[in-house]
Write a structure and sequence with these properties.
The chain is of the alpha+beta class and 470 residues long. Among the domains are: 105-251, no CATH class; 400-470, Arc Repressor Mutant, subunit A (Orthogonal Bundle). The protein is 50% helix and 7% strand. The protein is built from 20 helices and nine strands. The strands form three sheets. It has a four-stranded mixed sheet. It is flat and about 90 Å long.
Length: 470
Amino acid sequence: MKQSLTQGLTQIQKLSPLHIQTIKLLEMTTLELEQRIKREIEENPVIDEVISTDEDGEESQSRDISLSEYGADDPTPSYKTRINNQGKDIRPEYVTISVKESFIDSLNKQLGYYDMDEKSLAIARFLIGMLDSGGYLRDDLSSLVDRISFRLNIDTNEKELEQILSVIQTFDPVGIGARNLQECLLLQLRARKVTPEQQNALSIIEDCFPEFEKMHYDKIKSKLSISQEDLKLAIDEIRKLNPTPGGQIDESYADRAQQIVPDFYLDCVDGNLELSMPRFSIPELRVNQRYADMLLKSSRTSAAGKEAAAFVKQKLDSAKWFIEAIKQRQNTLMNTVNAIIDYQRDYFMEGDITKLRPMVLKNIAEKTNLDISTISRVVSSKYIQTHFGIFKLNYFFSEGLITEDGIEVSTLVVKSFLIEAINKEDKSKPLTDDELVGVLGESGFKIARRTIAKYREQLNIPISRLRKQL
């Protein structure tokens, strides 16, 4: 076999450190960016956060640092090593949230009030630790016997576990420690005051649970020999119960923890849409003069000067890339969101969802001359506060659907009509997907039954049988 060497030229696209930095920052929310800036200031001694004024009350200007001043060879074009995005508004303080105790902590605290021997106490703590976030014990007792033997080196049996679990099931909130939904509801019903409604509800969950799950109310009436009114009162009693008692303690904290800080603010002033970004989260950054002076002094000696110059050059490069990446991030975000607002101007003026146009990432990429991947990074985790609510940016993107009049509308509009139709339906005879096809057809939407089913599932709306109410 004959071997030979050949030469050829190939082009390889390599991302610059600045580009990599910008991509990472694009994906961050306002709060995440603030934390990232704080970390950069801590890790890079060359970067300083400066909030200062001179004698005239104006912001002092720092001298741009150039390595050429110190005899270092830097072929990279000079960048401004200071960025000022500090607004005049007073920096707002975020709400401090104190975490409440988890339901596991609460149960262990309640366990301390019971007089148990060490063995039972250890088993009880183990069972509590095995509860899921809803407060259920999903593992069967037979498997837990082996697990307790292996982990705690304690010999036990299912009967003993049943007895200890029954104690835990008396804890607050009621329904905790259940092994399934039926047991959870029974625990709560048995703890309530005895009334005719409660007794019927108890009979339904004990004797007709499969029929109750499928909402076969006629079968329940026949099986229990109760009237329509008694059935309705019993079902109302069951609806007051909590199917996930474990989330009861943490629920209010979880709701508050999900609060977000908008990345953009959109106001309608005198018929004009004005977009802004929270300026307080981007502090003024500049090069630390002390380290520049250190380089100047150390460069007077040959060996030590070169080593010091290399170190500070690395930090300066990192600083200038980070500062420039922040500037590019802000510009990219503003250009992208302005393009979205321009594309959906009629909708943003009034907040009328029927005016929301079909829009995909490609539409905005073409308007901004940016890659689709860049647009995706911008809209994936950012929120905008408008004069009619707070929305995630990707909410405004949707496919289109042609109406009977030949007009293309957003699928979000179709979904809003679907929600409205279901909200207005007779709950004793909910609309089937076939019937919903007819209802939306009357509004001008020619849509297939399978599409109705797909939209309904995307909206987490159950089938008609499961929407039935008495």
